[in-house]
Amino acid sequence: MLNIPTQSFPAPSSQQRISPSGQSGRNKVALKPGHSLMDWIRFSKSGKDLTGLRGRLIEVTQEELQKHNTRDDCWTCIRGMVYNVTPYMDYHPGGEDELMKAAGIDGTELFDQVHRWVNYESMLKECLVGRMATAIKTIIPPPPSTTLAPPISVAPPPDRDARPRYDWFQTDVSVHLVVYAKRKIPSTGCTIVDLEAGVLRLEVLLGKMSYMIHLRLAEEVEENVAVHTAFSVGKIQVSIRKQAKRKWTSLGQPLEFHNTFLRKKDRALYHRDCVLVSKTEVNHNTHVFRLQLPRGTVMHVPVGKHVYLKALIQDTEVVRPYTPVDQNLAAASNNSSQESDLYLMIKVYPDGVFTPHLNSLHIGDHISVSGPDGTFSLRPLRDVTYLYLLAAGTGFTPMARLIRLALQDIDTIRKTKLLFFNRRDEDILWRCELDELAANNERFQVEYVLSEPCESWTGRKGRVDESMLKDFLDRPDGSKCYVVEAAGLQ
């Protein structure tokens, strides 16, 4: 259109995404009546034979898997387990075409690209056919070399010098673990600490990589954790108070995945139980849910990243991604690192599965929350002078903290403009706060667009189209512009 660099968020399949039709955006395709997630949960528990094997589990060869590759007979493999997804076709929010991409093959990589966070074991457990057979390969050693030429197929050893490392020291009253990242830690970098029942889990997110410390501590400690990060030198110190004043002979016993450095997408999501401490109404169908982290958890969600909420609904594990907001639009985003609670602005869908469950929780109830995830990057904003934000409905949610960051922490951005699409006037989230911010800060501007306006509405009307965007995305001479859009507005 205007050849302006663009980035989209929130997360794939998030309820905060919106669809071109202006609907809720929860489904990529229109599902038939009676084919919602809740309907699938009921159907899968009806006792019907969904695999066609009368309850038997079989070992599936590659040849057998490849035979089941049609719409009416569709098997796929995810992480070594084979599922008959034929009965799930009409219930899949992405439509049958997406499922058919994995028909008769190992669909793990395709699944991870979109649904890595989904608990497919729970969702498809009644469709389980069995385990993939392990092919036994005969390895024939190569003939001995008769020359001094180096072997051409030997992979270089991994650069262990680039791996983070850790050390520890102690006083009579405290123990301190220090991680040396061996690189500068970006301000959006993230350290997550979970300390519970003497088990310490520390994960440091460094771009696309994840470094983990996982230990059962040698002695009892208080579940109060302090984290100090020296971003420029790449050093993170975690301090914990001892329960007894005595010297430790070791830090503790290593647990699974201790001292590992993996790609973030290969690291399993870790959830901790959080407590609902308040629920504040934003408008007629949207609330801000305030969740308190456990006492031994330190977690800051960087701007543009999201978390996953997980709940057991009718014996099925359901997971949904949501992007945190600050307590309000006026709250400084740089104070969020000191905030121990998560604020999630969530629209409740009466016919949904997850949001009615969340809305039914009472103050003091628990819900599982993952660590931060997502691919959104702030790096492209470094030299931007004009930032344009396009959002609709709850697609505004991830924009809220980005607005504060642009106005408070990125001096090069001379103007931040938000084009906010909604159906009706009463649907606009945080309108008073947005209007107040625009009135008090000349670097911020907001325009609203309604698809179903009342007669007294004097603002923009209609749906997103090219002419409207050309008018909004003005490009001053000499400026460097950037667009962030809620996915689905293309």
Task: Show the helix and strand layout.
Elements: E1 6-9, H1 37-44, E2 58-60, H2 62-67, E3 69-70, E4 73-78, E5 81-84, H3 96-100, H4 108-115, H5 120-123, E6 128-132, E7 165-170, E8 174-180, E9 190-196, E10 199-206, E11 209-217, E12 221-230, E13 235-242, E14 252-254, E15 260-263, E16 271-281, E17 286-292, E18 297-298, E19 307-313, E20 316-322, E21 341-347, H6 354-360, E22 366-370, E23 386-392, H7 397-408, E24 415-422, H8 431-440, E25 444-450, E26 460-461, H9 466-472, E27 481-486
Parallel strand pairs: 1-27, 2-6, 23-24, 23-27, 24-25, 25-26
Antiparallel strand pairs: 3-4, 4-5, 5-6, 7-8, 8-13, 9-10, 9-18, 10-11, 11-14, 11-15, 12-13, 16-17, 16-22, 17-21, 19-20, 19-22
Please describe what this structure looks like.
It is a single chain. The protein has 490 residues and is an alpha+beta fold. Helices cover 14% and strands 33% of the residues. It has helices at residues 37-44, 62-67, 96-100, 108-115, 120-123, 354-360, 397-408, 431-440, 466-472; strands at residues 6-9, 58-60, 69-70, 73-78, 81-84, 128-132, 165-170, 174-180, 190-196, 199-206, 209-217, 221-230, 235-242, 252-254, 260-263, 271-281, 286-292, 297-298, 307-313, 316-322, 341-347, 366-370, 386-392, 415-422, 444-450, 460-461, 481-486. The strands form five sheets. Strands 1-27-23-24-25-26 form a six-stranded parallel sheet, covered by helices on one side. Strands 9, 10, 11, 14, 15 and 18 form a six-stranded antiparallel sheet that branches. It has a six-stranded antiparallel sheet with strand order 20-19-22-16-17-21, with helices on one face. It is globular, with a radius of gyration of 26 Å. The N and C termini lie close together (11 Å).
